[in-house]
Structure formats: C-alpha cells, structure tokens
Amino acid sequence: MATAVRQLRGALKKSSPGLRYERELWEAGASVVAGMDEVGKGAWAGPLAVGAAIVPKDRRIYKVRDSKLLTEAEREAMFDRIADWCERWSVGMASAAECDELGMSAAQKLAARRALDALGVTADRVLLDGKWDFVADGRSTMIVRGERASLSIAAASILAKVTRDRIMRTEAEHFHAYCFEENKGYPCPRHRAALQMVGPSTIHRRSWAFMDNLGWRGIRRVTPDHGQGQLFL
What we know:
Distance between the termini: 62 Å
CATH topology of the largest domain: Nucleotidyltransferase, domain 5
CATH architecture of the largest domain: 2-Layer Sandwich
Largest sheet: 5 strands, mixed
Shape: globular
C-alpha cells in the first residue's frame, strides 16, 4: 500500500507543471508571458476554443494539471480558483461555421488571435503546447506536451476546456438528440447514431469527413477551399 501511494505521488509530481519556461523568459526580459492551449479541435460539433493565461510571478496555485488529466468535476471546481489567480486570462473562439469556411488551421489561428486580443495587454512572449506555431508572429515558444510542463499552458487548457464544455452543455438544451451534455460535440457511438437518425445540426462542422457517411439527401459537406459545398444526392 505504501509503495502504491509513493508511486502515485511520484506520478502526480511528474505530471505537475511548473514555471521553468516562464522564468526563463522573464529573466530574458519578457515582462508579459502568456500560455496558450486549444480545445475542441477533434470535435464534430461546436466551436474551437483557444485559452490564454498570464500567471503571476510571485503566487503559486496547486493541483493545476493538464485538463485531460482531470475529471469534468475537478476542472469545474478549479475554474474559479484559476481565473481569480491569473493576472489576466481569456478564451478565443472560432465557430463551427468559421471552421468550415476557413479550415481548421486558419480557424485555430483566428481563435488564438481573438484570445490574445481579449487579454487587454500585449504579451511579449507566448508559450504554446505542441510543435505548431499557431500564433505565427515571432513571439512563440513551442513546448511538446507543454500542458504538463508549463503552468500557464495548463491553466489556459483548463480555462478553455471548462468554457467550451459549458457552451456545449447549453447547446444540449437546444439539440437534445446529440447528447452534447455528455460528449461535448466529440465523436462517440450515441453522437454518430443521432447523426444517422436526424442529420447534422446548425453547429456541426459540415466540412468534416463524418458527413460523407450520413446517407441523407440534400445535406451539404462544405469544402473550406471555396465554401460552396458539395450536395450529396
């Protein structure tokens, strides 16, 4: 039992993000450092969300983890604590229609720009999760598995995830068939079955390949290149 507890503590410590990357940038002269992370890229429905968080240099908060390592209840419980702790934070959105019209890469850049603009200050440097620079203006530092290494990225991931989940729970009240309150717009058997039965809603991403297999007459799969769509008959 004691060994199992030690192993669990070790695993939690290993997955606990810190301020190493933020401190390196602060010491290099970057006064304002923002961490950013996206949520909803793999969903069939709903917006793409990008969170941005500027954390304090002199106050820590505990139990912050990559949002994927926390349960929905844990994320909800931490949301207000993280929001109050951050010096500034924001979540930028790109709607399902914008994802279809622009394509996912451009939509993520749009959501990131909206998040940075909403901070109300100009970030000197931006920490991003992953290998892709979706800010692309010379300010970015990419960190593979950054939400497990950077406290500001982890905070941004939780803020973005909870914000998007709340939106999808609200959408579930208008679109009962898809069980958005449970799947948040992501693929799952019940979501797929609902699409087969009633077709896509107004917040589904109609450029995605799942549209090909619905078998519905008159449903358009939008093509991001020109936005005209292809009519399936």
